[in-house]
Amino acid sequence: MIRKDDIKEDFKLISKTINQDEIYLNNDSIVVKFSSKKNGIVTSWLNGGYKEDLTAVFNHQLSQKNIDKYYNGGILRFLEKLSADFTRQLNLKNDKLSGMVTSADIKKYSIAIERYDKIEVLAITTAGARVNSVSAGDKGSYYELNGEYKLDSKLNSKEANLNKIDFKKPGTINTIILINGKLDESALLLCEMIAVEAKAVALRELMISSNYSNEIGTGTGTDGIAIFSNLESENYIENISKHAKIGEMIGRCVTQSIKDSLAKLQWLTPTYQLNALVRLDRFKMNLDEFYNEYVCVKSEKEKKEFILSLMKISKNPELVGYVSMIIHIIDQYRVGLLSKKASLKVSNSILKRHLNRDEWFSMKLLLKYVIDNQIQ
What we know:
By secondary structure, the chain is an alpha+beta fold. The protein has two domains: 4-273, L-amino peptidase D-ALA esterase/amidase (4-Layer Sandwich); 276-374, no CATH class. 40% of the residues lie in helices and 20% in strands. Strand 8 (110-116) and strand 9 (119-127) form a beta hairpin. 37% of the residues are buried.
């Protein structure tokens, strides 16, 4: 049960939509209080799916105490009590709410707004992607049959280790999208499709690696989304596509809000990502194997000196460019767009022609190791 002591701050109004929907924030929650009748789609255990009778939607940051409670199966009851508290604190008409949960710092939220003519799209996002980034199609670790969860026994030890999830670390992207026009169920689903694609765009633009494969992440393993339109609006919007202005607005809002939130919470910015070691991290290298077989270090001191030399040059923009070229070749080889022969020839040519500076020798060795292990 949630105690009053658990709520450390009163809610503060931080923004309003063009429809006068009110956005509130306290120490662990964002709540959107609706000013008009809404319809929407929510990924939630509490009043999830398509709804037309909600008075508010929320995004709640979990404490360790609540994470433990969720793990023991108390999530729905907890959300119901949380909903009742929000109803009382914000003087809502009733306790028919829906919402999402995250371990990301709620105060690192981002709001992005796009307007065109009389149309407004607003996205509110909290985002973390360092420890739980995943690419669609990556190996899953469990499955469910009739409410019973089982681990995938077919995973090898490396795959099982990659699929260990740390629920204590922030790795969830939750987005609430508010549209001032009136949309039907089908249009809302199309909005959701565009929003999910936009999330993948945000991670791609930042080159955020999947924690579970060698791919660029397309999201995290625990993401949530809520999309609402205004049923009282006179502007009925039927055509939702990426060719339509509203599709563009949804895409831009979601992408920008995710990137801004990732920057606030985890410093995942273009500047941080301009690092050859960061770019190579998604290949899950066995560094002990690398040091022993490619570097042949004889002492911990030599190993430390080699690591320092890598770190010293890793942020050189020209070097990052060459490393990125080789990574792109590896990616194309992995999906069958380039042959092994062509991939090896071009990659080794880049090493020979462009990484021939003495100060880049350590990176040249590391890239050779990556090429040998990835293009087989």
